[in-house]
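Hey all, quick one. A colleague (J.T.) asked me to put the S-adenosylmethionine job into the tracker so the inputs and the structure tokens live in one place instead of scattered across chat threads. No bug as far as I know, just bookkeeping. Sequence used:
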Amino acid sequence: MARTFGRSPTVRPREWDADSYDKLPLPHLRWGEDLLTSMKLRGDETVLDAGCGTGRDTAKLLEHLPHGHVIAVDGSRAMLDRLTARFAGHADASRLTVIHADLTQPLPLHDPVDAIFSVATLHWLPNHDQVFAHLASVLRPGGSLHAEWGGQGNLAAIERVLSQMRLPALGETLNFPTAEDTHRSLANAGFIDASVALHPDPARLHRGEQLESFLAVVVLGPLLDRLPAERHQALVHDVASQLAAPEIDYVRLQAHATRK
Ligand SMILES: C[S@@+](CC[C@H](N)C(=O)[O-])C[C@H]1O[C@@H](n2cnc3c(N)ncnc32)[C@H](O)[C@@H]1O
């Protein structure tokens, strides 16, 4: 059974609709696979999955670590409940530790990990100097960081629609840095040999329920969090109708670095 601890009532990150999230055709799965392929694991390492969500990548990590261990960290109880249900009765669960924690704070880990993996999470964290410092402090010297998240220019078409509708920008809450900013933050935190690249990766969806569900559950969360629930459905519908194409214009930032 997976060990779960650290469920502190003081953890602040927002909640997610984890069941809906898990049902969506997320490009996140492909992003996770690309990152995993780049890691070249031996199979006996301990890897931290920072912002593990419902654990789809966590399961893949465990497959690549037949003699290793995964520490899955997330700030959403709903996401972690879904992850725990995914591993119920699964043999791999004995090699999994689940921690409910806020990634903006120092991580409650006792021993250093060999590598850190993170998909579609770091843009939720405002101060990357601080986040990379916290991550470096739980990574052994020579250990590696492999992360991807939304970078500069991410969701620009959606931001334009929000601006036309006189709604707050997602960028007021989310952090889409440049490759140069990320290089600097990694170096400040004691990472070396960093490679950082931005690339556009638009996700095409079907107009109607699929697009609207994707917008509501994955993209517009920071905006919906600021509005009463009764306004959500109409607002999501209006944003979807004003998009020129049923497309989420993702720009991803991928970073690989080694802890000095
Ligand atoms: C888009 S989901 C990605 C989940 C998973 N990595 C995937 O690719 O499906 C972003 C995740 O980051 C987590 N997250 C956001 N801010 C956080 C914070 N401050 N502390 C911990 N987790 C956070 C959310 O709870 C959510 O599970």
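Adding what we noticed when we looked at it: The two ends are 34 Å apart (CA to CA). DSSP finds ten helices and ten strands in the chain.
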